[in-house]
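Morning - thymidine-5'-diphosphate inputs below, output right after.
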Amino acid sequence: MAKLKEVFVCQNCGAPSPKWQGQCPTCGEWNTLVAEAAPQSARAAAHKTPRAARADVSTSLAAEATVEEPRLTTGSAELDRVLGGGLVAGSVTLIGGDPGIGKSTLMLQAAAALNALGPVLYATGEESLKQVALRARRLGLADATARLIAETAVEQIVGVATSVGARVLIVDSIQTMHSERIEAAPGAVSQLRECTAELVRFAKASGTAVLLVGHVTKEGQIAGPRVLEHMVDTVLYFESDTGSRFRVLRSVKNRFGAANEIGVFAMAEQGLREVTNPSAIFLSRHAEPVSGSVITVMREGTRSLLIEVQVLADASLGNNPRRVAVGIDGNRLTMLLAVAHRHAGLLLGGQDVFANVVGGVRLAETAGDLAIVLAARSSLQDVPLPNSLIAFGELGLAGEIRPVPFGEERLREAAKHGFKLALVPEANVPKRPPDGMTVRGVTRLNQALDAF
Ligand code: TYD
Ligand code: MG
């Protein structure tokens, strides 16, 4: 009998290597190569003769483009939005997130709703059927007719999904799955890859929408490898601030919709509830105007979000004043303070500066620049800005205020929440401002700071 062939697979990036090495030649990580049996499919494929190519297998782009992707609504407008308008038949979606964040809960709620449109199969490899049923009872979904199966062999799951004619297959989680064709333990890179490949093949061949739950490593990536992200159509991450009951579902890759789209949920007694107006939760309205606080409008996917930026400038006791940024890039904060000093005479040299975005949100956009500098000045001089003010705009190194995309949408969101005054880049001033709102355009930083 031929000796079983071994390959060494990097557990970080998934690259194979014929011999063991201390460092992965592809990604450069140390001690990540693990011996795994070479997949049979790969060995068999080497002996196969190529398929005869036929001309009629190609199709015209125009003919394909007219085919609308049918979308299945998941019963949750927030989840549908993140998916790009619902679940696409034959698509594969990976949902990652920390343990306990609510992935299984979300999947179970979606399963119950999707079951109205066609058979749904929920394969659990982590929990027993009893546990899933108990959770369903807590969620008030006990009478839902979605099919359950406690199984970890993908071939079995695919077989059952085929026989029940599943329109949607949920696999919780991909790390517990194994393929009979591979010798490695569940969770190993080659297993993850083979199981995912099997499920992708099944989804494409049958038109079943497949949802995969994936765990996240300490570094915040889907455990195992980036390779999974390449294989699937859509990657969603479930995130939360520690201790908060709010959950943000974010699409980081979507072949059927916008990336960076977010959906907001709250974990309640009866499972996940949608938060349709997330601006309201990230915004802490102060009864009296306070210094160091400015509201700005951030874009996440197709959504505008109102968030509060806070800066505290305090006389430093040491020789090296501190610059602490939470929810904002630290380098950007340092840069903005330098621009504010150089072009608007803001003396922050002897001050510790702390900047924070309320609600655990990350402000990764340059549109928040103006609000950060306004908040810094407000804190330094202990002069509050009006409660009804919002500000956005990018700040350049020459002290200029640059326009940002989606100015009108941002203004509309602010007007919707009752803000009366907006300080924005000149080029973002609309011809017709939203009702009840005064929009003031600025081109230079000192001009913006002089506005109050
Ligand atoms: P779960 O969906 O099991 O998380 P994951 O699959 O991502 O590991 O969610 C578990 C957490 O959610 C657990 O800490 C309890 C909480 N929870 C609620 O607060 N309310 C509920 O109705 C449910 C079902 C769970
Ligand atoms: Mg779970």
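Note: Residues 97, 99-105, 135, 138-139, 267, 269-271 surround thymidine-5'-diphosphate (ligand 1) (CB under 6 Å).

O.
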